[in-house]
Amino acid sequence: MKDEDVKVRGQHNRNDSEDDFFPDRIEMPEELESQDDFLSEISESLKQQVNEELMQEAGGTTEEMSNNKTKKKGKKKALTITLSILGVLLLTVGLIVGTPAGRNLIYNAVGGYVSGRIDNEEAENKKPSNIFGDHDEGDLENTDPNLRKEKYVANFLIAGVEEIGGGGRTDSIMIASVNKKDNTIKLTSIMRDCYVEIPGKNSNKINAAYAFGGMDLLVETVEQNFKIKIDGYATVNFDSFESIVDILGGVDIELGAEEARYLNTTNYISNPAYRNVKAGMNHLNGNQALGYSRVRKVVTLGGANNDFGRTLRQRRVLNAIFEEYKSKNLFELMSIMDQILPLIKTDLTGSEISSVLQAIVENRIFTIENHRIPAEGMYSAGRNEVGSVLLLDFEANVKELYRIIFLDEEVTPTPEVLIDTPN
């Protein structure tokens, strides 16, 4: 069974209505080409409301109208001022939300806020780039010709960093691709035991690249081996991951009986007080979710095993986090993001964050797809000087990655072969 074929409970089905998960956008004219007509409509509406108010008051006697003449003048003036202010506010909202330039102001403001809260020290000396390359041809022309880059896709490397005992390896590596052509976010796990060439180092497992040279070397390693342009990265360590899940209020994950038994009898859940999960649906806190994400020695619900099972669990947790985000209202999200952003490290600048936000909102990109590299039939398992490894058919896997991310034609896999090479 392909691990990507295992359905995640609660995952947004691509056939579901997006309105089931997100509030409707404010629908305004795409272009206010005739602003005079727009203003006239508001003016006429205000006049009509004022006249209706005066006609209702005219229902009294002549004596009452005479006695209340001064009051009516005051009411009329107050009503006119109130409706005028309301009209100006509606016009302002229309101009901001209903025009590309106005919405850009919103995206830039949000991008600036995120940039100010998130840990992006790595971006301080970085020249901001046009993530999608849709405004400046030079952005694509300056890309390494050996790396695939398309205007409708932005690729980001996401890493979960293990810092136990002062070390530093990536326990999870994913490419998150924002695709404006089919309006999806694709999460593609890269198995950490993939045997790859690491620039300037001996070949090793891909998760060793971070230990040798941090995210810069990991990005370079992914680009060199998979021939794809990475536009930025984000990292979260174990402690931050726990905090993020706890700030959200936990996540819903379904466990198999063997998974539940294993988590309750090992130290993957580091706090013994939380070793109380059960088979079936569980609402996991941060400590429990982290433990679940790291398990590899028992099969997942659905049958995936070893590191294939672990990467599937990690994608399931990310999907569960996404579902929790969607269940929050605007005010809850503002508070949550204010707490979560400082826990994330990235090299994205404020303008780059704004560009990604704009692409997601304008294209209503609310669907997540889950994939894995190496794909079935495109690797062999073996052992060499660095231990148990996955030996990839890189040509086939690169084509498969292009199919996933860039929507290229499908690749026909070759049979899987088991290789056991002595140390």
Total tally of structural domains:
2
Strand content: 15-25%
Overall mean pLDDT score?
Answer: 79
CATH architecture of the largest domain: 3-Layer(aba) Sandwich
Radius of gyration: 28 Å
**CATH homologous superfamily of the largest domain - what is it?**
LCP protein
Number of strands: 13
Task: Work out the helicity level.
Answer: 40-55%
CATH class of the largest domain: Alpha Beta
**Helix segment count?**
13
Largest sheet: 6 strands, mixed
CATH-assigned fold name of the largest domain: Aminopeptidase
What is the N-to-C succession of helices and strands?
HHHHHEEEEEHEHEHEHHHEHEEEHE
Question: What structural class results from the helix and strand content?
Answer: alpha/beta
Q: List low-pLDDT spans.
A: 1-36, 413-423
Span between N and C termini?
30 Å
Overall spatial form:
globular
Provide the spatial order of strands within the biggest beta sheet.
Answer: 9-6-1-2-3-10
Explain the overall architecture.
There is one protein chain. The protein is an alpha/beta fold and 423 residues long. It has two domains: 35-98; 120-374, 3-Layer(aba) Sandwich (Aminopeptidase), CATH 3.40.630.190. The protein is built from 13 helices and 13 strands. The strands form four sheets. Strands 9-6-1-2-3-10 form a six-stranded mixed beta sheet, sandwiched between helices. Strands 12-11-13 form a three-stranded mixed beta sheet. A two-stranded antiparallel sheet has the order 4-5. The two termini are 30 Å apart. The model is unreliable at 1-36 and 413-423 (pLDDT under 50).
